[in-house]
TrEMBL record:
GO cellular component: plasma membrane
Record gene name: Lhcgr
Protein name as annotated: Lutropin-choriogonadotropic hormone receptor
A Pfam match: 7tm_1
Role this protein plays: Receptor for lutropin-choriogonadotropic hormone. The activity of this receptor is mediated by G proteins which activate adenylate cyclase.
């Protein structure tokens, strides 16, 4: 034992030479900078243990560092050192039982050939290290893998490298998905033997016997002897021939971690197990969702981009309805970008998401996607509410020109909506809830009271917005019953159609709000897997449909669209036809005594938003 000698800076080569009886060597808490020469020990003991710990100035393990120590079983406890790199063939010429590298916090690299030339190890512990990958060679013999708190190890080698793995204690639940339903080579061979031998095994277990059983496990070959006239079904540890104490002394059982049940093959166990928020599946889970999400996100992006382009480039005056429609289209365009991100990552990681889950959910990509979807959702709901209030206000005060809602009023209102939506979307980036809880990057983390309150506030505000919209349209329907509002007859028809559209929007949002509120109170009524159906079929439908229902299917938009195309040299005759029809309507209004400034007040306000399908 060489312990607590901070002033020991060097051990000369050959200091440990020809020590055939040496069983255990410990060098801990020293000032040694260079890895000591251990290659001339030549111990003849059946099992040799080397412990190197708390040697913080020792930074590398060189080639052939342990060759010549022992020709039999070797346990290396190399923990809490300053190791940063383990070189090629570092363990060459050894028969490794256990290789403990835990708590080497600066260990960033194990060379791919570090285990080449070695037999084993059976147990590998790399917990609390800075490793980003495991070596590509030498993993076949590992039966127990421990990598707790190895935060940078985000990807695992191909599964066929772990051909004999029986137990894995990992950092991330998603990595355990890689081993789910995977049988090792040893398990496959055992299962084939047990399939053919099950009847004999069962009959053996059902009667007292003097037969001798052999069991070959991962560490030794143990002789199992069933004592005569002892029932195999005895529950008392002292009378059962299959209890440990019936065969081994208590001291002999120390360190044995495996169950000795001959008639049951071992099954690979892995912890931590995936939770309800991160089940073992790809991002979208269902195959049909992969097709639908591409169809919906392309429609949302193309449709809303077209609306934005036409409205922004139109030479007609920017009215309040046009301005509000621009905001709604931008919000829905952002929702399309979110869907595009989710669909792209799902396509790239399909079948191997467990290897990409950590990079995706903890990286900037998921945070970006989450920001887009929360910002887009809140801005869309806010804008729909403002559009509905503007419809109600325009129709209610159609005869009072001095109370007309103008652009100078709408701009600060929507500026407030933008600021609100950005603040809501930024909160999870600042630690209030989190976008990295689930693969679809929604803020589902409600562990803290503040996070739970954040989710509930969003949902309650959405419900309030729906109530406001309902109230506005009820008032509109009451108002149109007034015979004095004949001048606004065309506007009321538009309002009725708009009501259908708005209610359709919120009907799509209703199931999402219902299940989200129940989950926020920690009483989930739907799994994350099934919630992905809502994500694709309900959540973005508004963003896909809004540009068509509110703009593309209207006469005013078609007119602006063809006028824009005529500027590019296309559809000139169709554009000219729309131009003539517009000025004909304008001239007709002037002859009938209408204001020379254009269409009627309320009609002008609702022109773009009429949802008539001609």
């Amino acid at each position: 034992l060489i312990l607590n000698t901070k002033n020991l800076l060097h051990i000369e080569d050959g200091a440990f030479r020809n020590l055939p009886r040496l069983k255990y060597l410990s060098i801990c808490n020293t000032g040694i900078r260079k890895f000591p020469d251990l290659t001339q020990i030549f111990s003849s003991e059946a099992h040799f243990i080397l412990e190197l710990c708390d040697n913080l100035r020792m930074t590398t393990i060189p080639r052939n560092a342990f060759q010549g120590m022992n020709n039999e079983s070797l346990t290396l406890k190399l923990y809490k050192n300053g190791f940063e790199d383990i070189h090629s063939h570092a363990f060459n010429g050894t028969k490794l039982n256990q290789l403990i590298l835990k708590d080497n916090k600066n260990l960033r690299r194990i060379h791919n050939d570090a285990l080449r030339g070695a037999t084993g190890p059976d147990v590998l512990d790399i917990s609390s290290t800075a490793l980003e990958s495991l070596p590509s060679y030498g993993l076949e013999a590992i039966q127990v893998l421990k990598s707790k708190m190895t935060l940078r190890l985000k990807r695992l080698p191909p599964l066929d490298k772990f051909s004999n793995l029986l137990e894995a204690v990992l950092t991330y639940p998603s990595h355990c998905c890689a081993f789910r339903n995977v049988r090792t080579e040893k398990q496959n061979s055992l299962l084939s033997i047990f399939d053919n031998f099950s009847k004999e095994c069962e009959s053996t277990m059902k009667k007292p016997t003097n037969e001798i059983f052999y069991r070959d496990d991962s560490y030794n070959t143990s002789l199992w002897s069933a004592e005569k006239n002892m029932s195999p079904f005895a529950t008392d540890e002292e009378t059962s021939p299959y209890s440990y104490s019936a065969i081994f002394d208590e001291n002999e059982m120390t360190g044995l971690d495996f169950e000795y049940d001959f008639c049951q093959p071992k099954i690979l166990t892995c912890t931590p197990e995936p939770d309800a928020f991160n089940p073992c599946e790809d991002i979208l889970g269902y195959s049909f969702l992969r097709i639908l999400i591409w169809f919906i996100n392309i429609l949302a992006i193309v449709g809303n981009f077209t609306v934005l382009l036409v409205l922004i480039t139109s030479h007609y005056k920017l009215t309040v309805p046009r301005f509000l429609m621009c905001n709604l289209s931008f919000a829905d365009f952002c929702m399309g970008l979110y869907l595009l991100l989710i669909a792209s990552v799902d396509a790239q990681t399909s079948g191997q998401y467990y290897n990409y889950a950590i990079d995706w959910q903890t990286g900037s990509g998921c945070n970006t996607a989450g920001f887009f979807t929360v910002f887009a959702s809140e801005l869309s709901v806010y804008t729909l509410t403002v559009i509905t209030i503007e419809r109600w206000y325009t129709i209610t005060y159609a005869m009072q020109l001095d109370r007309k809602l103008r652009l100078r009023h709408a701009v600060p209102i929507m500026l407030g909506g933008w600021i609100f939506s950005i603040l809501i979307a930024v909160m999870p980036l600042l630690g209030v809830s989190s976008y990295m809880k689930v693969s679809i990057c929604l803020p589902m983390d409600i562990e803290m009271a503040l996070s739970q309150a954040y989710i509930l506030i969003i949902l309650v505000l959405n419900v309030v917005a729906f109530i406001v919209i309902c109230a506005c349209y009820i008032k509109i329907y009451i108002a149109v019953q007034n015979p004095e509002l004949v001048a606004a007859n065309k506007d009321t028809k538009v309002a009725k159609r708009m009501a259908i559209l708005i209610f359709t929007d919120f009907t799509c949002m209703a199931p999402i709000s219902f299940f989200a509120i129940s989950a926020a109170f920690k009483v989930p009524l739907i799994t994350v897997t099934n919630s992905k159906i809502l994500l694709v079929l309900f959540y973005p439908v508004n963003s896909c449909a809004n540009p068509f229902l509110y703009a593309i299917f209207t006469k005013a938009f078609r007119r602006d669209f063809f006028l824009l195309m005529s500027k590019l040299g296309c559809c000139k005759s169709r554009a000219e036809l729309y131009r003539m029809n517009y000025f004909s309507a304008y001239t007709s209004n002037c002859k009938n005594g209408s204001s020379a400034t254009g269409p009627s007040k309320a009609s002008q306000a609702l022109l773009l938003l009429s949802a008539l399908k001609k």
